[in-house]
Design a protein that fits this description.
The protein is of the alpha/beta class. Helices cover about 40% and strands about 20% of the residues. The two termini are about 25 Å apart.
Length: about 200
């Protein structure tokens, strides 16, 4: 992948997110306001309510940012393929994040980046990740928890899909280990890490 438009998507999808090593994940509007005034371009929206989505999307676009929406955490919106279609057509985010393969596939059909989140709790979960990745081919895989550099390295060797690391990443060392093992970026809600890795 590179900085050109990837076939089948509506937004540029560089593997390094324009050099962002951190994808800041926001839970509160106050944190969103902080990021809109920052040098970050790509922002992840976590907990949100369906009534806020359109105003948040408009605000993000006004600041020329790209929004990745975690659709599993939208309160008041049924988590099915019709809901994903609605989001892609009306909200028009840069991408969606979901644990559901069908949500990722629906997003891709609507030319929105599809990021599949996987909780790697054991070997069975890892095998399932490999199987689903070959079937759905998401644009990115988010690995949870992200503090497993040896697993990230293994996945990078077996899959031709860029990996994001998220969950339980608390320090600069955690970030560097994830990136050094092959993750293209780290998702985190820790503001101290946002500040430490803010793009120039």
């Amino acid at each position: 992948m590179n900085a050109e438009r990837k076939a089948g998507t509506s937004v540029p999808a560089p593997s390094d997110f324009y050099g962002q090593r951190i994808l800041p994940a926001v839970r509160k509007l106050k944190d969103l306001e902080h990021l809109l005034a920052s040098s970050y371009i790509w922002i992840v929206l976590l907990d949100s309510h369906v009534s806020q989505l359109m105003s948040v999307a408009q605000l993000v676009r006004q600041h020329k940012k790209q929004l990745l929406v975690h659709v599993d955490l939208i309160h008041g919106l049924k988590n099915d393929d019709y809901a994903i279609e609605f989001l892609c057509q009306s909200m028009r985010p840069a991408g969606i994040i979901s644990t559901r393969s069908s949500a990722v596939a629906t997003a891709k059909r609507h030319k929105v980046l599809g990021i599949q989140r996987h909780f790697l709790l054991d070997s069975i979960a890892l095998d399932t990740t490999y199987r689903l990745s070959e079937k759905v081919t998401p644009d990115y895989i988010e690995v949870m928890p992200g503090v497993m550099p040896h697993i990230i390295a293994e996945m990078r060797s077996k899959l031709d899909i860029p990996i994001l690391a998220g969950g339980l990443i608390r320090t600069n060392e955690d970030v560097e280990l994830a990136l050094g093992s092959g993750a293209v970026a780290v998702t985190t809600s820790r503001r101290e890490l946002w500040d430490a890795y803010a793009p120039e």
